[in-house]
Amino acid sequence: MFRSLGSLKIPILVTLASASYVSSFSTFQWPNYPLAYAEKQLYEGVLDILVQNCPPRDNTTIPAQWLRIAYHDMSTHNVDDGTGGLDSSIQYELDRPQNIGQGMFDSLNDFRAFGIIAPFFGMADTIALGAVLAVAGCGGPLIPFSAGRIDATEAGPATVPEPQQDLASHTEAFRRQGFTPTEMISLVACGHTLGGVRQVDFPLVVTDPEDVLQTFDTTINFDNAVVSEYLQNTTQNILVVGPNVTTRSDFRIFSSDGNVTMQSLLSSDTFNRTCVTLIERMLNTVPSGVTLTQSLSEPFDYVVMGDNPSRTGSTCPSTGCTVSSNNIQQVFFSIIGNIQGLSGDRYQFNATINPTTSISKFWFEVNENDGSDPIVVDNGGSGFVVEQDSVFVDNGRSEHLLTPTFEEVTQIVVAVRGDTSSTVSITTFDPVSDATTPPFVPVILTTNLQIDENNPSEGGFTFFTTNISNTANFLNITANVGGTTLSQENVDLSLTSFPFISNSS
Ligand code: HEM
Ligand SMILES: *[C@@H]1O[C@H](CO)[C@@H](O)[C@H](O)[C@H]1NC(C)=O
Ligand SMILES: *[C@@H]1O[C@H](CO)[C@@H](O)[C@H](O)[C@H]1NC(C)=O
Ligand SMILES: *[C@@H]1O[C@H](CO)[C@@H](O)[C@H](O)[C@H]1NC(C)=O
Ligand SMILES: *[C@@H]1O[C@H](CO)[C@@H](O)[C@H](O)[C@H]1NC(C)=O
Ligand SMILES: *[C@@H]1O[C@H](CO)[C@@H](O)[C@H](O)[C@H]1NC(C)=O
Ligand SMILES: *[C@@H]1O[C@H](CO)[C@@H](O)[C@H](O)[C@H]1NC(C)=O
Ligand SMILES: *[C@@H]1O[C@H](CO)[C@@H](O)[C@H](O)[C@H]1NC(C)=O
Ligand SMILES: *[C@@H]1O[C@H](CO)[C@@H](O)[C@H](O)[C@H]1NC(C)=O
């Protein structure tokens, strides 16, 4: 995302991410906010720090909790009428016995606290991303990731399978969710390779009060030990060999086809491929009418990341900007990028725009200086078009502040090419709600800005200001300038680094 301005300078951040095995130059038609944001969260997001090396929590592991919540959320899907699916309705379903467990609350709290939920990347997308990271964090295969899910605003039907139900009920439950009897066997095995059954949650299943967690297999990792131990008759899976025969649901499911499917999953290659396919399908099971983005299994080679104009910076000559080495930053990839062996650099450019002419579009050229032809990256020929450059967040004038009551706020300054008769409002998106229990829903606020007394008009621009939550991550601007409405959407505040002013008056 990139927007320009008059008079001022623009940072353009470019990620050049290329892996040795990626031979094609993939880029996407810009702008595409959901896809760009999904790619950024998958490859450079911060959520992975909670699942790297499959860490413990609540007597099980965090990744086990993240995979289970994804399945339970998706379980409301009904193929017959297209309702339900992975839609974060789980936020409204935690009082049900089938959704018992500290892991449900803790997972949702993780997803809220990291502040990655965005206008086009809700709790449901975050739950799906969490499942992808969970599997990878425990050494499992990479599951292609799509975004675009829509968050529900109420509970769905109570259709999560329970261990005391019979095989016919489970077969019907999985059919309703879109899976065949064979796929049911595999998907349960893929899920029950992580974590286990907690005594506090299912005392009628884990009857020994000393037994805090009965793991499904003897390895913490995402692997097919759950399968091999079952077939070797050495399993400790309490849903297979537990003292309460009624709740041996995994035994009934795993043996439902004479162990044929379980035998096939003894090959770890088949286990991997089957789990990738079925977990991806599970995560992409959404209510009909919801369209997901294309699936991501490798990064785009070029991503234009800059968006907001800045008031300061160096000047490009009329021939264009040239990157010098001190403006190249190494990209730190998430666990997904690290597993894929990626490396990448981010190049930052400042461009000076004449205030009276401004720019309508930009493009760039990459010269590896290795004898190969330079690569022109021009958004498929159309260039990166700048829709309007009359209304934008002024990075250089905006700042973080501590209020007299020691509250951290962001003082947003919006530059408007127009006079003081203009009116400006912003709608902010704050993913971190104050709620202490789910549902955790973002706070969306519309505020009218006032003329900024500290920044007098300059170069044809008038400055408007307001204070917003410092955890807000996106905002939209609407301005009325001389009777014309101008807007700037999806300003990504996480790409900016406003100065922090600690002693404001
Ligand atoms: C008939 C179907 C299923 C039944 C009856 C079932 C039942 C259970 C039960 C009783 C637990 C223990 C939860 C706790 O102690 O809080 C559990 C844990 C788990 N289930 Fe399932 N499950 C089913 C299918 C699945 C599927 C399809 C997946 C994912 C693909 C899955 C993933 C998990 C995971 C990862 C855990 C471990 C959670 C943890 O350790 O915190 N389950 N399941
Ligand atoms: C973990 O197990 C211990 C011992 O049974 C228990 O006291 C504790 O409450 C459990 N933790 C959670 C989060 O359930
Ligand atoms: C597996 O163990 C159970 C319980 O010990 C036993 O009844 C069953 O015959 C064993 N099956 C095989 C194939 O060894
Ligand atoms: C076995 O589990 C079922 C279903 O949860 C429960 O109704 C029954 O009381 C349990 N039996 C024993 C002996 O605990
Ligand atoms: C399937 O395998 C389990 C575990 O080895 C065994 O107990 C069961 O008898 C087998 N079922 C069939 C139908 O072979
Ligand atoms: C399955 O996937 C894991 C994780 O990517 C990998 O370590 C393992 O080698 C794979 N197994 C096979 C047989 O491909
Ligand atoms: C752009 O301008 C900023 C602010 O003056 C400066 O810190 C930065 O180094 C400049 N970047 C480039 C690529 O010249
Ligand atoms: C923003 O907060 C600062 C510090 O409390 C205050 O001085 C300033 O007037 C506030 N700005 C607006 C527009 O409310
Ligand atoms: C900004 O506008 C876009 C497009 O209408 C919308 O999808 C998004 O939710 C809006 N963002 C905010 C913070 O209101």
From TrEMBL:
Keywords for the protein's UniProt record, in alphabetical order: Heme, Iron, Metal-binding, Oxidoreductase, Peroxidase, Signal
PROSITE patterns linked: PEROXIDASE_4
Main EC class the enzyme belongs to: oxidoreductase
InterPro entries, alphabetized: Ccp1-like, Haem_peroxidase, Haem_peroxidase_sf
EC number: 1.11.1.-
GO molecular function, one term: heme binding
Signal sequence bounds: 1-19
SUPFAM superfamilies in the cross-refs: Heme-dependent peroxidases (SSF48113)
Biological process, per Gene Ontology: cellular response to oxidative stress; hydrogen peroxide catabolic process; response to reactive oxygen species
Ranges of residues in domain Plant heme peroxidase family profile: 57-269
Family: Belongs to the peroxidase family.
Name the record gives this protein: Peroxidase
Source organism of the structure: Lentinula raphanica
Classification lineage: Eukaryota, Fungi, Dikarya, Basidiomycota, Agaricomycotina
